[in-house]
Amino acid sequence: MKNTLLLAGALLGIGAVGCGDYTPTEETGEAPESLGVSAEALTASNCTQLTATSVIANGNDGNVPANTMDDRLDTRWSQLGKGAWIDYDLGATKTVAGAAIAWHGGNTRANTFTVAVSTDGINYTQVYSGTSSGTTTNAETYTFPAVSARRLRIYVNGNTLNDWASIAEARACAGTVTQPPPTTPPPTGSSVVWVGDFETNNLAQWTKTQMVSADRLALVASPLRQGRYAIKTTVKHGDDPINSSGNRNELVRMTREPVGSEFYYRWSTMFDSTFPSAKTWQLFTQWHHEGDSGSPPVEFYVYGEEVRLNIGGSPGVIVWRTPLVRGQWQDFIFHVKWSPDASVGFVELYLNGKLVMPKRFIATQFSGQLNYLKVGLYRNDTITQTGIVYHDGWTMARRLEDVLNPTTVLTAP
What we know:
This protein is mostly beta strands. The protein folds into 2 domains: 8-174, Sandwich (Jelly Rolls), CATH 2.60.120.260; 192-402, Sandwich (Jelly Rolls), CATH 2.60.120. The chain contains 1 helix and 23 strands. The chain has one helix at residues 8-11; strands at residues 49-50, 54-57, 77-80, 84-103, 111-118, 125-131, 140-159, 164-174, 192-196, 208-210, 217-220, 230-235, 247-253, 262-271, 281-289, 298-303, 306-311, 317-323, 330-337, 346-351, 354-361, 371-379, 387-397. Strands 1, 2, 3, 4, 5, 6, 7 and 8 form an 8-stranded antiparallel β-sheet that branches. Strands 9, 11, 12, 14, 19, 20, 21 and 23 form an 8-stranded antiparallel β-sheet that branches. Strands 10-13-22-15-16-17-18 form a 7-stranded antiparallel β-sheet, with no helix packed on it. β15 (281-289) and β16 (298-303) form a beta hairpin. The chain starts with 7 loop residues before the first helix and ends in a 16-residue tail after the last strand.
């Protein structure tokens, strides 16, 4: 996908695909397009291409991610399933202002997709959401305001014919950032580092899932706390997607907060009216340590008719508890400094706009291990009744003001 020969394959009459039936592992039904290709079709318009040093994806059907960097239209990356993604490492942090994508079969179907960028490969920010034209196999350039990024990730959420993700070639596009005049102080900007609010209408904001089937972590349009979508988590007796203790269906976000970092987390949770009452643990939010063995250092869970916050693993310390409320959204703001040192780390909690636990110094990490976020429902496998809990509005930021709802008024206890 060179600047001057972006679609070299098209000159040979290769490229357009009339996709018909599919095997479980590969798209089929290819048909050649006309040899007539204009000169304009051989360039990436409005795109100064950035060369990636490597590319990864969350899967493939044998058509590997590297095929999207070989300057050919007769090869591709393909993966079945909405939310499939491909991720390009630019080798260093650069200014990015767009993505040029040549869609496999792009003249027979329109692809729904989003583009996200990251400086660290962990925290991604969505910068573009849209649909391809569905009229060409030539590269189309999708622009967005210039940002600094090392990685560019394309999430594909199906197309007008099926749920395949298929890209022949893709490149990040360079951009420039307009600097303010020297006399103008730089804007403070938002401190938000990640949003997991499901407004993408998929689970692409999250790193991965641990679920036995898609209906266990289902996007719903009702009930909602904000926006258009929330997640409905269902756990039935025997649900064990990772062959471990307990029953679970959970979303995972690899936050891996560094030692000494400080963040605010906002989210809303609602327990279904049928949520079971059991004198045992039912976790709905946890920051698990990387060791993956034993109780996590930070866990929000239900025990009987109480919601509790436990710090330090098992047995740990129950630092806060409140009566369980069913059928109503509960708004959490959780302020944490991450450290294995109890004189440095701390937690602070707001519930429904009220400070319910003032800052308490306590170790929030295990020594030598970073944490990652898990959300959904994870419970003792002795519980036989189906459990349903809803989550919405996840936001992670460095300042309190950036996680507040516009209508939130914080008050003292």
